[in-house]
Design goal:
Layout: H1 4-36, E1 42-44, H2 46-56, H3 58-63, E2 67-69, E3 77-79, H4 81-98, E4 104-111, E5 116-122, H5 129-135, H6 153-163, E6 171-173, E7 177-179
Parallel strand pairs: 2-4
Antiparallel strand pairs: 1-3, 4-5, 6-7
C-alpha cells in the first residue's frame, strides 16, 4: 500500500505529464493548421495580443520575478489574431524559460514606414549564431540548457510569420541574451 504522500507524488507526476502531453498536442495541432489553413487577415491590436499572452503566462512571470518593459505606443498590424497571440505566447515563454535570473524582458516596436517591426529581448544566456538555424526546425531546442520543452515553439512562430507575409530574425550574444 502507498502512503498519502506517495499517492500525492504519483498524482502530481501524472498531472505534470498530462499537461506536457496536452501542450505538445496543442502545438502540433497549431502547426498542422498553419500548414493547411489560409486565414483572412485584418488589423490586429498588438497590445491586446501581448496582454492576452501575458495573462496566459502570468504564473510563470510571477515565479521568475520578471521585470517586463512594454512599449509606450503600439502600432497595429495586419494579421490573424489567434496566430499572432500564439507568436507572442511562444516568444514570451521562451524569454521566461531562457531569460536570466531575475528575468528581464523588453518588448519594443519600430515604425519602418511600410512595415512594422516588433521585437522581444531577454537577458538570458544567449546562443551562438550557428544555433539559430537549428532552433527554427521542428523539435529543436538549446539542448545544453536544462529546461523543459518540446522544441516546437520557434518553428511554429517562423511558419506563422511566413504565412502572414512577415519575416522573423534573431540576434543573440552569449552571456547577454537574445532579441527575436
Amino acid at each position: 500500500p502507498m502512503t498519502k504522500e506517495e499517492h500525492r507524488d504519483f498524482v502530481d507526476t501524472i498531472l505534470s505529464n498530462a499537461r506536457k502531453m496536452n501542450a505538445i498536442i496543442n502545438a502540433l495541432r497549431l502547426l498542422a493548421s498553419v500548414r493547411k489553413e489560409d486565414v483572412e487577415t485584418n488589423v490586429v491590436n498588438m497590445e491586446v495580443m501581448v496582454q492576452e499572452a501575458l495573462r496566459r503566462l502570468r504564473h510563470r512571470i510571477d515565479e521568475r520575478d520578471t521585470t517586463l518593459t512594454l512599449p509606450d505606443t503600439w502600432i497595429p498590424v495586419r494579421g490573424y489574431g489567434p496566430w499572432i497571440e500564439e507568436v507572442w505566447t511562444n516568444y514570451l515563454g521562451n524569454a521566461l524559460t531562457y531569460g536570466g535570473t531575475p528575468c528581464e524582458i523588453v518588448i519594443g516596436v519600430e515604425d519602418l514606414g511600410e512595415n512594422v517591426r516588433y521585437w522581444i529581448r531577454d537577458n538570458g544566456v544567449g546562443f551562438s549564431e550557428d544555433k539559430l538555424e537549428s532552433l527554427l526546425h521542428t523539435f529543436s531546442r538549446l539542448s545544453e540548457l536544462n529546461v523543459e520543452g518540446h522544441g516546437l515553439g520557434l518553428s511554429i512562430v517562423a511558419r506563422i510569420i511566413q504565412k502572414l507575409g512577415g519575416t522573423m530574425s534573431a540576434e543573440s550574444t552569449i552571456g547577454k541574451g537574445s532579441v527575436f
